[in-house]
Amino acid sequence: MKGMKERLAKKIKLITIVSTLKQGLAHHKSKIDRTIHHIRDEIVAESGQRRGCVTPTLEDVEVSEQEHDLEEEEEREILLEFEEKCPPGGEDSIVFYTTGLRAVRKTFEACRRVRFLLENHMVKYKERDVSVDSEYRDEMWRLLGRKVTSPRLFIRGRYIGGADDVVSLNENGKLKKILVGFPLAHSPCKCCKNERFLICSSCNGSSRLIADDEETSNGNIWTRCRECNEKGLVRCSLCT
């Protein structure tokens, strides 16, 4: 009988200890929950303050406009340092004469360097491949008054120079400044996917058409397609 009483007393004591532990854990969990909610409220309040600051005031707008005007003025001053030579359609754009031929590695790599810098600044530019269209080559030679190799870069009707000149401008920070205001290139050209040329639909890329009756009478079976270049390609109207 005595042993049973002792075991019962131990069980009651154990139940009391377990109950106390449960209460302690519940109290501790409650404190943790309050701490979490407090931190969450602080984060929400802080993010709300940040969102509130996004709305620009009149003073902020005026400062932003002044900064933009200063950037444009600095761009014009830098461009005035370069010779005025404007390629067709290059009055307010970037025109880049390049080559896709790998025959001369030095020239090909120089073109790649300039293209990389333009793409790195994410600006839209008109790429004119002299290896695909000989008219681009003649156009470049006429602009510079001599036979030169690509790459050659023109910005807003000003001759910037070759690869070494463009790399130097990028290193001293001037290239970024003179590219201010140009539209950004977020995706490839919708028309040619940045290939710059399209296959001629008139001759299907052959650059030749069946001659008419008058030319056939002279012994000519074929005649030159006037819609494309010597490689049967037409220029993309959106990006060249």
TrEMBL record:
InterPro entries: Glutaredoxin, Thioredoxin-like_sf. Gene3D superfamilies: Glutaredoxin. It comes from the Eukaryota. Pfam families: Glutaredoxin, GRXCR1-2_C. Residues 94-160 form the Glutaredoxin domain. CDD domains: GRX_GRX_like. This is Glutaredoxin domain-containing protein. It comes from Eruca vesicaria subsp. sativa.
